[in-house]
Design brief:
This protein has a five-stranded mixed β-barrel. By secondary structure, it is of the alpha+beta class. It is globular and about 45 Å long. The termini are far apart. It has one domain (about 5-120): OB fold (Dihydrolipoamide Acetyltransferase, E2P) (Beta Barrel), CATH 2.40.50. It has helices at about 50-55, 105-120, and strands spanning about 5-10, 15-20, 25-30, 45-50, 65-80, 80-95.
Length: about 120
Amino acid sequence: MKKITIIGRVGKDAEIRRLQDGTPILNFNVAVNDPFKKDAPPTWFGCSFFGTRGEKIAPYVTKGSQLAVVGDFGLREYEGKTYAEVRVSDVELLGGGKRDGGDEPAQQERQTFAQDLDSEIPF
């Protein structure tokens, strides 16, 4: 088994497909930048997350969102090119991406909480 952990950004919104038996598969691509080579293009990983867990996180795996992905690493050849793939066992959502309704309510809630906290601190 070849385990890999990657942290990167999603290239486009995830897609759910189904096997013939109805098992859902969440497919998405993650771009990983090399921190030591600022001008180098990112390395792209095709990710497949099998089962209902993938189906549940699908709305959050959107273009630009940052993820940490853990899974089994593999290579696939297609039309003479080699592609890196990850069969995902775990995903951690790190933020970013697009959201319906924007981020304003969450930001307002944090500001209100901070103001309430400031008024309660005696020093």
